[in-house]
Write a structure and sequence with these properties.
alpha+beta
């Protein structure tokens, strides 16, 4: 019964326009939104990602407007972009999907901006070989907040991904255990005009498209600048 009701919830969510085929204009708007989210969060001074995490980041994913809805059962869905650090800067972006479900006493819905930071050499370019689940296939933790402070505890040893969310102006770490992350091959192909291998793009072997230059430049400014401090 529970599983059946959850399936209905997920089917309802899956029937929304967010799952419709994307146009190149849609994808450009997604990249532009990701840039705005990143810029606003990084401008928050003392309520943003700590410097040592910026220094350690290997990949960054930005998901503008992760949609979460619930009526006893919960479901969430979002689409975003990923760029990774390479030997010569930050890579061209690729597109991802995030989806998950949960059960508990809950009701309501919200839209949340999300940032995922990969903090070890495995990185998202390796995780995205296949669909993976946060908390299962990849260890994750709610990221600490505070630009001037050190990222405390044992995230360097135990977490492959650090997750952050922003909802109604509040920026904080978020628990995404059970959320699946996968390549969005169709959107990446539409944006680049040809099939592109995710790892090839994220390892810096594909030029940054003109429409993504500002987003990648801002990531480079925020994360490379941290390395030079």
């Amino acid at each position: 019964m529970k599983k059946g009701f959850l399936a209905v919830c997920l089917c309802t969510l899956l029937s929304t326009p967010v799952f419709a085929a994307s146009s190149r204009d849609d994808l450009q708007a997604r990249i532009d939104s990701a840039k705005v989210v990143l810029d606003q969060i990084m401008a928050a001074q003392d309520r943003t990602i700590p410097l040592d995490i910026l220094h350690s980041a290997t990949c960054v994913a930005v998901v503008p407007g992760l949609v979460k809805g619930a009526f006893v059962f919960g479901a969430q869905y979002g689409q975003g972009v990923v760029t990774c650090r390479t030997g010569h800067g930050w890579s061209a972006p690729v597109f991802i999907r995030m989806a998950g479900g949960s059960f508990g006493f809950q009701i309501g819905g919200q839209s949340t901006d999300l940032i995922l930071v990969a903090v070890n050499d495995r990185g998202l370019q390796d995780l995205l070989k296949n669909k993976f689940k946060i908390g299962g296939d990849a260890s994750a933790a709610a990221g600490p907040v505070g630009r001037a402070g050190e990222a405390s505890t044992d995230w360097k040893m135990n977490a492959e991904l650090l997750s952050y969310s922003r909802n109604k102006g509040l920026f904080a770490g978020i628990d995404l255990d059970g959320t699946s992350v996968s390549q969005n091959r169709d959107d990446t192909q539409i944006y680049y005009g040809a099939p592109e291998d995710f790892q090839n793009v994220l390892r810096g072997n594909v030029s940054v498209p003109p429409g993504a230059v500002d987003f990648v430049r801002d990531v480079a400014h925020d994360f490379v600048q941290a390395k030079n401090r």
